[in-house]
Amino acid sequence: MASSSGHSTWTWDAPVVPQPPRTSAFERLWRGFMTARIGVGLVLLILLGGMRLLGMVQVSDWQLALCGGYLAASLAVRFFGRPVAPGRTFDPQWVYIVGVDLLAFSVLHFLQAANLNFSPLYALPVLTASVLGSMLLGLGTAAAATLLLLVHASLQALDPDHTARIVQAGLTGCGYFVAALLANELATRLAREEEAARRSLSAARTQAHVNELVIETLTDGLLVVGPDWRIHAANPAARNLLAWQAPEAPASLALVSRPGWRPLAAIAQRTFSSQQAQSAELALELTAGERLHLRVRTRLTAAQDPYSDALCVMFLQDLREAEAQVRTEKLAAMGRMSAAVAHEIRNPLAAIAQANALLAEELSEPGQRQLSDLVGKNTHRLSQIVEEILNLVRVQQQPVADWLELDQSVAGFVGEWERQAQAGERLQTLLQSGTAWVTFDGEHLRRVVVNLLDNALRYASRGPGAILVATAMGSTRARLQVWSDGAPLDASVQRHLFEPFFSSESRSSGLGLYICRELCERHGATVAYTRVRAPDGSSRDGNAFTVTFRTRASMVPGGTPFDTIGA
């Protein structure tokens, strides 16, 4: 299966599950019998007409008309009738099918048209009723044909072979009954087998679709390889890992066709040789200077029949992603442990800070006061770290969104932070979002602004305008940007900026930016880092953290925000 958009989907070169037949066996049998009736009518018409033209026997016009009428009736049923499955009640369609057959053949047989014996033709309505109808209808038709034969034999009382004719009619009738029983039994068994096959086919198709969906969405790569290293199947994850962007079908490629895939061919060969599962960590040289480290596990499938080979199923896992997942799980465990420890530390830490404050009131020597100030600063720093860890736990709770006027709220938060940090001229604001309203919890927005300003203050220079807080209203969204003139961040640092407990300096807990991202995501906002020019129009480059909000552009009378942009 290939995607029409050009990118890969699960691809398999084995025979696909066949489509279910559009017509059932009953419909095909019905058409077959109706066609046979047309054939019988055509043969009778040609036979009697030919014999009349050749002058072999006396054939009247009404006999030819009867054959022509039977042919016309058969054609009408074949092309205009619909097959109806047998039921428990009598179906009128059998009147103009079986009834017409019995009537036409009986007239020809009783009147001895062209001195021919037409008794074998009764087999057609008997078989039609037995195969396409119920057992009762089949036996009834056989009984009717038998009675007709016996009546015809009884009417020939003056014939010297009268007794023999009755016996022959009885034996022929017995044959009709046996044929009806056997035909109905075979038809019933065929219907059961077809229904079972249809259910099995439906289950197989459903299972195949489920397997395709599961395999296609697997994050691990999956390859199916034959003993000749030919690739039988590959899911999208495997194609991405192996840089397989070409449109070739798997059947046209082999593991040995590309030099970078040779290690995979080697482990597949070991799997086939040992007939056991293999596991290894491989380094593939896909392009010059690019090495892909994989964890590969293999399994062998059982051969389905003596004419097919076992296949090697290879599971490919990118070691970088595996390590990232392990690191994320460790960070989550560390976060839970840190929150528990923070709760235990907060009370003793408060007691130490209070005791140090009381002690500082009685100290007079400069050296002792300096030591007390050092204790107070570090106690305050530990308190901030504990508070950030506890804030991280509170972030997991569902926020209560509110509508805030962006410029007014940011101005209040920035002013509060400036008084505490004493940034002075280092901090400037450019609030230009107008009357934009954003959906955000007020306390959560304050924490986002404070965390971004703390981060900017840590790396900004001490010159005027080193930190700029700007707001703006775009076409559909409002933006808040905290810019600082710090040095560019390394690419390795940028990749982990918003991870918990990651920091480029030892004096930071590494939770501030992570909390900002979590809070923004919970309110439908986004936060991102870029290296851009200062928002005041100067030519200075700096580090900018931009928060993009859902907005409302104005207030309606009564103080209710009116959503003009849409959340």
Automatic annotation (TrEMBL):
<feature type="transmembrane region" description="Helical">
    <location>
        <begin position="93"/>
        <end position="111"/>
    </location>
</feature>
<dbReference type="InterPro" id="IPR000014">
    <property type="entry name" value="PAS"/>
</dbReference>
<dbReference type="GO" id="GO:0016301">
    <property type="term" value="F:kinase activity"/>
</dbReference>
<feature type="transmembrane region" description="Helical">
    <location>
        <begin position="29"/>
        <end position="50"/>
    </location>
</feature>
<dbReference type="Pfam" id="PF00512">
    <property type="entry name" value="HisKA"/>
</dbReference>
<keyword id="KW-0472">Membrane</keyword>
<feature type="transmembrane region" description="Helical">
    <location>
        <begin position="62"/>
        <end position="81"/>
    </location>
</feature>
<keyword id="KW-0812">Transmembrane</keyword>
<keyword id="KW-0902">Two-component regulatory system</keyword>
<dbReference type="InterPro" id="IPR036097">
    <property type="entry name" value="HisK_dim/P_sf"/>
</dbReference>
<dbReference type="Pfam" id="PF25323">
    <property type="entry name" value="6TM_PilS"/>
</dbReference>
<keyword id="KW-0067">ATP-binding</keyword>
<feature type="domain" description="Histidine kinase">
    <location>
        <begin position="340"/>
        <end position="553"/>
    </location>
</feature>
<keyword id="KW-0547">Nucleotide-binding</keyword>
<protein>
    <recommendedName>
        <fullName>histidine kinase</fullName>
        <ecNumber>2.7.13.3</ecNumber>
    </recommendedName>
</protein>
<dbReference type="InterPro" id="IPR003594">
    <property type="entry name" value="HATPase_dom"/>
</dbReference>
<keyword id="KW-1133">Transmembrane helix</keyword>
<dbReference type="InterPro" id="IPR050351">
    <property type="entry name" value="BphY/WalK/GraS-like"/>
</dbReference>
<dbReference type="InterPro" id="IPR005467">
    <property type="entry name" value="His_kinase_dom"/>
</dbReference>
<dbReference type="InterPro" id="IPR035965">
    <property type="entry name" value="PAS-like_dom_sf"/>
</dbReference>
<dbReference type="Pfam" id="PF02518">
    <property type="entry name" value="HATPase_c"/>
</dbReference>
<dbReference type="InterPro" id="IPR036890">
    <property type="entry name" value="HATPase_C_sf"/>
</dbReference>
<keyword id="KW-0808">Transferase</keyword>
<feature type="transmembrane region" description="Helical">
    <location>
        <begin position="123"/>
        <end position="151"/>
    </location>
</feature>
<dbReference type="InterPro" id="IPR003661">
    <property type="entry name" value="HisK_dim/P_dom"/>
</dbReference>
<feature type="transmembrane region" description="Helical">
    <location>
        <begin position="163"/>
        <end position="183"/>
    </location>
</feature>
<keyword id="KW-0418">Kinase</keyword>
